Amino acid sequence: DIQMTQSPSSVSASVGDRVTITCRASQGITNYLAWFQQKPGKAPKSLIYAASSLQSGVPSKFSGSGSGTDFTLTISSLQPEDFATYYCQQYNSYPRTFGQGTKVEIK
Amino acid sequence: EVQLVESGGGLVKPGGSLRLSCAASGFTFSDYTMNWVRQAPGKGLEWVSSISSTGSYIYSADSVKGRFTISRDNAKNSLYLQMDSLRAEDTAVYYCARDAWADYWGQGTLVTVSS
User: Fold this and answer.
1) Are residues B47 and A89, on separate chains, in Cβ contact within 8 Å?
2) Nearest Cα to B16, choosing from B92, B82, B69?
3) What does DSSP assign to residue A55?
4) B104, A46: Cβ pair inside 8 Å?
5) Does B55 touch chain A (CB under 8 A)?
6) Contact at 8 Å (CB) between A102 and A7?
7) How are strands ordered across the β-sheet holding B78-83?
């Protein structure tokens, strides 16, 4: 199974900050990597697929990069609505696996 | 508008069974792989099972293999998860999600396994 490791597990940031979350795969997954945002009590929401493609309707302050084993999600200019937990997921092979999540909190 | 609506969750005793449904609308259901993903209380996301567009290919997590069965009815635009031999550790919100990269998710249905 491919293990997905996110870092950090949590980050405290202020409105207007730039935040970067890293996701590392235990083996190469080319660009079969998705990012999700989840707010408390809500379903996850797709942000990025194919490592760097923005899901329709998602603001351009979200961006993804990487290939192979190392990936990043960047949120430029953090806004109050961006405080949430973010997950990466590989869909290169089965079983699909998620990172453990990164909670973005208000400083 | 793509919509996925789960139903069928509830309280069940250990060893019991439950069948979840996911009603899809707003897209050509028969064109897409579909998935079940769960989230235990206070925990992260866990992939459960996937089924190809025609139902020919099925994949399941080791944690549910032999106990859970994913299926679909393309004529009814519906996805199912038959859950047997339920355990306390299966307690979670169960989501259905569309396509390999889970671009759309339902609102989830809560399954509680407890005596």
Assistant:
1) yes
2) B82
3) P
4) yes
5) no
6) yes
7) B3-7, B18-25, B78-83, B68-73
